[in-house]
Specification:
Strand order of the largest sheet: 1-4
Largest sheet: 2 strands, antiparallel
Oligomer: single chain
Number of strands: 4
Helix content: 40-55%
Order of helices and strands: HHHHEEEEHHHHH
């Protein structure tokens, strides 16, 4: 409207006191080193949660994607995961956050944990079910399991931040922004740059050195 008034298109002065709210700086990445990931996983009470923590850290899956993951989505030989869906809080199936199907490579520690869990997992399609074969509940796992794991390992971790470990390792190995954006399921490369830009710059600085 201010622009329009300057162009002689209107005389409205009602927005003169308005200012754009500054967008807060994106939260920087917080990758957990592998030894901390192992401490977190070792603090889990059962093999299911152990494998889930390892997969979050070494395949970069979100909570909603972990809940929806089925054995048929995973190639246990290569570690490739075909992500096509996620679960809402009411257990309804929905698309992934980016609304895109993606093939995610699992790093070796995550694949080892998955194969270990497969040997004793319930004979149901879900990879990480409850004891009755249903999807994990938000209040059940986050309300009881997560605090217990944090107390046992002494690390106040966030499950979602384990994705940063996956991203950090891939960046160190030379992966590009486009591939990382695809594998993490971000909507745009800018989202990846905002969160992991410093990690990319550190890698470049190391290469220069």
């Amino acid at each position: 409207i201010r622009w329009g008034r300057g162009e002689g298109l209107c005389t409205n002065t009602m927005v003169d006191d308005f200012r754009l709210v500054k967008t807060p700086a994106p939260k920087p990445a917080n990758p957990y080193p592998p030894d901390q990931v192992q401490r977190i996983a070792d603090a889990c009470e059962n093999l299911r949660d152990y494998a889930m923590v390892m997969l979050a850290a070494y395949a970069g899956l979100r909570w909603s994607e972990l809940r929806a993951l089925e054995w048929g989505d995973i190639d246990l030989d290569t570690g490739a995961i075909d992500l096509t869906r996620s679960l809402d809080l009411d257990h309804s199936t929905k698309a992934t956050k980016s609304n895109q199907e993606r093939i995610v490579p699992t790093l070796a520690p995550g694949l080892v944990a998955l194969n270990l869990w497969r040997e004793s997992a319930p004979d149901v399609p879900l990879v990480f079910p409850t004891s009755n074969g249903k999807p994990l509940r938000e209040n059940g796992w986050y309300g009881r399991r997560l605090p217990a794991i944090r107390e046992a390992c002494g690390i106040h971790f966030a499950l979602h931040e384990l994705r940063d470990t996956y991203a950090s390792i891939l960046i160190q190995t030379g992966i590009g922004e486009a591939e990382l954006t695809l594998w993490l399921g971000h909507r745009s490369i800018q989202t990846t740059r905002d969160r992991y830009g410093k990690l990319f710059e550190k890698r470049k600085a190391a290469l220069v050195a």
